[in-house]
Each structure stands twice: as C-alpha cells, then as structure tokens.
Write a structure and sequence with these properties.
The protein is α+β, with helices and mostly antiparallel strands. It contains 15 helices and 16 strands. The protein has helices at 14-34, 47-54, 59-64, 83-92, 137-153, 172-184, 192-200, 215-218, 229-244, 289-293, 307-317, 339-351, 365-374, 385-390, 411-415; strands spanning 37-38, 44-46, 67-69, 75-78, 102-111, 123-132, 160-165, 250-251, 263-270, 279-285, 300-306, 329-333, 356-358, 379-383, 392-397, 403-407. The strands form 3 sheets. An 8-stranded mixed β-sheet has the order 1-5-6-11-10-9-7-8, with helices on both faces. A 5-stranded mixed β-sheet has the order 13-12-14-15-16, with helices on both faces. It has a 3-stranded antiparallel β-sheet with strand order 2-4-3. The two termini are 49 Å apart.
C-alpha cells in the first residue's frame, strides 16, 4: 500500500523528535568533551568498499546489504555501517596529513536487510566514533569510555561492559586452526550458516544466533592461549586503563563482533533489561582496515550505538527527560479585519526569535482560543478592532488566565 512505509522502516513523528534531539544533544556534548569532530559521509558507497572493508563471508555482506546497479553500471550499496565510509573519507581527503590522531563522530541512517524487530529496523540510526592514527591502548580505553559516558549521561543503569581481544594477523591464524579442528569434530551440530563459516571465518561461529547457546560452543577453545606477546600486552593495558577510570568490565572470550576488520580489542555494552537485543553499543580496533581499503598501514578503533535501541532502553527505564519546548505565543485575530495585522505581528515576533503561531483557517474567537490552549503556548496575543485602532495587543496568560493590554511596540520587550 502506498500509504504504508516500506517494511523495516519507520516514521519519526514530531512528538518523538524531542527525544531524538535530546539524545543527539548528549552525543554532541560528550564528543565535544573528548575532542571528537562530526563527519557526514554519503548514504551510499561503491559496493567494493564494504566487501573489502567488512569482509565477504560476513552476514552483513552476504545477506544484509542493499545493493543495486546504478544507471552508469556501477554497483552501489546503501551503507550498512559507517566505519568503512569514515575511513574512505579519511583517505580521500588526506586527513592523515597532519600526522595527528584524527577523532571523528557521526550520526546517521544505516541500512541492512534483516528481519524487522524492536530496536532492529532495516533503516536504523547509529551514533559512532572513530579514532584513526594511534595504536596506544589508552585510545582503546578512551573509545570505550565515550560509549560508557554517553549511555550513563542519559541515566541508564545496570549497564554491562564486556571486552575481549580477537588477536591480530600474527596470532589469529593459530586460533583459526584450533577452531576449525574443534568445530570439524562437531560439524553435525552446526547450523547451515556455521558450516559455511567453518572454512571462511570460524570465529564467527562463536557468536552465532542459532548455535550460541549450545554446550559445544561454550566449550570451544579460547583465544587467550594463542595470543602473541604484543596482543597480550595490549589487552592487559586496556584493562589497566579501564580500571584506572573506575569502569567495571567482564572479559567475554566469545565476544568477537560481527565484522571481519576487528583486531585486538573488541567490546560491547549491554543493557540486560532489553533481553535478547541487549547490546546498545559495541566496537573495537581495526588496525588492518585502512590498508585493506587502499591506504598505508594505519591503526584505528571505533564503536557504534544503535539509537533506536538506546531510546527503547530509556523508555524501559523511564528516564527520558526531554520535554517539548512550548511556543512563546499564539496570536488570536478576534476580528476579521485584524487578520493582516495579526500576520504582521507574527512575522515581527519570529524575526525577534520569539516563537509564535496563529490560526490560518479564520475560525471563531472561541475556536482560536481553544487552539491556543492546545498549542502549549504561554500566552495568547489577542487582536481585535480596538487593538488594531490603538496599536495595542491584549496578552492573556494561558496558565493563570490573567490578561492585560499593552502597546504593540512594547511586546518584544515584554517577552525578554
């Protein structure tokens, strides 16, 4: 039906926008404190960017991307995530030229063809942060703290931080072989997707939605025994920095995240009252991504938070604090000849940054006063024959019902 939005998409209505703006303002305040600057990337990119960046064999690339051929015969994909796009922008615009750590954040729509459910739509919104150009584990801790402080600033309690290391190209092949050997012995218990992952990316089996609760997954080898000295030391330092910042965390050896580009640190922040969809933010280090896309070897780390899921968590905990900002004034034309006079006053108020509205349907005085009350305005500015003749306006306080008449030239000063 043309009157229905496509499945997996949702209108954000005016009465809901206040909550979105509240969350977005928190994002910008946190990022300002941490020295991160906003970036806005295109909604679509060349498909190869995500194939190479995210990795073929991942659910995102194999099953969930919105990909089409444009009129020029190019394969284009609506962005399923924004890290690859941010890295592409970093390279294309030579943001690395200063030699300094580049700190970026974004807020925007992402697209994945998935089964729609609460907090997981086909068009969804993410807040994300990327730090490019530094391998110091203190940056890992900073990224985690931004996500943690953001969620805490919204008033969310009972959050759980889970961290892990997924190794690096030096030590991960050893772990990969261990997993392939282990899961080969349990191949009959694997779902069809995991049988496919066994050769391409056996680590992805660890967070399979189908097999995740089975005993043989719980008993799978852990990466800790395969880590190289560099990865082991890096992970130890991340833990020290988080402890120094007073943040509690849990090491989860099964936390591998869903994207191929992660190296070393991976993390997830969960809000358990949401149940199966409890992850509200997550990310990790991706030291090989920039090289994979075509740049020089450059370390990077980031995270993303799904805003729909964050808002659901806020509603569940009833901590949404945003309130609709009321109008300053609603103008009532009590006489049909006052209509143009009222419109002129409306224009002058708006130009003086006084929020105002009026009735354009030329309804009765009683109907206009009802509309003024429903609008949430603080004052009704009533203009009738006498007011027009004397260049005055009658002001009614819609909370106390008190009213007075003042000269029109003093109206702006009254609002100040």
């Amino acid at each position: 039906m043309l009157t229905n939005a496509p499945r997996g998409t949702k209108d954000i209505l005016p009465e809901q926008i206040t909550n979105w703006l509240y969350v977005e303002n928190k994002i910008r305040a946190i990022c300002k404190n941490y020295g991160y600057e906003e970036i806005r990337t295109p909604t679509f990119e060349h498909t190869e960017l995500f194939q190479r960046g995210i990795g073929e064999g991942t659910d995102v690339v194999d099953k969930e991307m919105y990909t089409f051929t444009d009129r020029g015969g190019r394969s284009i994909t609506l962005r399923p995530e924004n890290t690859a796009s941010a890295v592409r922008a970093y390279l294309q615009n030579k943001m690395y030229a200063t030699g300094n750590l580049v700190k970026l954040f974004y807020i925007g729509s992402m697209f994945r063809y998935d089964r729609p459910q609460a907090g997981r739509l086909r068009e969804f919104h993410q807040f994300g942060v990327e730090a490019l150009g530094e391998q110091n584990p203190a940056v890992d801790a900073e990224i985690i703290l931004i996500a943690w402080d953001f969620l805490k600033s919204l008033g969310l309690e009972d959050l759980k931080l889970k961290i892990n290391t997924v190794g690096c190209p030096k030590c991960r092949p050893v772990y990969r072989q261990k997993l392939q050997h282990y899961f080969s012995e349990n191949i009959e218990e694997l779902c069809d997707d995991c049988k496919h992952r066994l050769l391409k990316n056996p680590m992805r089996i660890l967070d399979c939605k189908v097999d995740g609760g089975k005993d043989f997954i719980t008993d799978a080898p852990q990466i800790e025994s395969c880590l190289c000295d560099e990865c082991r030391e890096h992970f130890a330092m991340v833990q020290k920095y988080l402890t120094a910042a007073g943040v509690d965390f849990e090491i989860d050896p099964r936390l591998v995240r869903g994207l191929d580009y992660y190296t070393k640190t991976a993390f997830e922040i969960q809000y358990p009252p949401l149940g199966a969809q409890s992850a509200v933010a997550g990310g990790g280090r991706y030291d090989g991504l920039i090289e994979e896309i075509g740049g020089n070897p450059t370390p990077g780390i980031g995270f993303a938070a799904g805003l729909e899921r964050v808002l659901i968590a806020l509603e569940k905990q009833t901590v949404l604090q945003a309130e609709k900002v009321p109008l300053d004034a609603f103008i009532v034309a009590a006489d049909e000849n006052a209509d143009v006079y009222a419109f002129n006053l409306l224009t002058q108020l708006r130009r003086k940054n006084i929020s105002a509205n009026m009735d354009f349907a030329k309804r009765s005085l009683k109907a206009q006063m009802k509309q003024a009350a429903k609008s949430g305005a603080k004052f009704a500015l009533i203009l009738g024959e006498d007011e027009v003749k004397n260049s005055t306006v009658t002001i009614k306080n819609l909370e106390t019902s008190e009213q007075e008449t003042i000269l029109l030239e003093n109206i702006a000063q009254m609002f100040k």
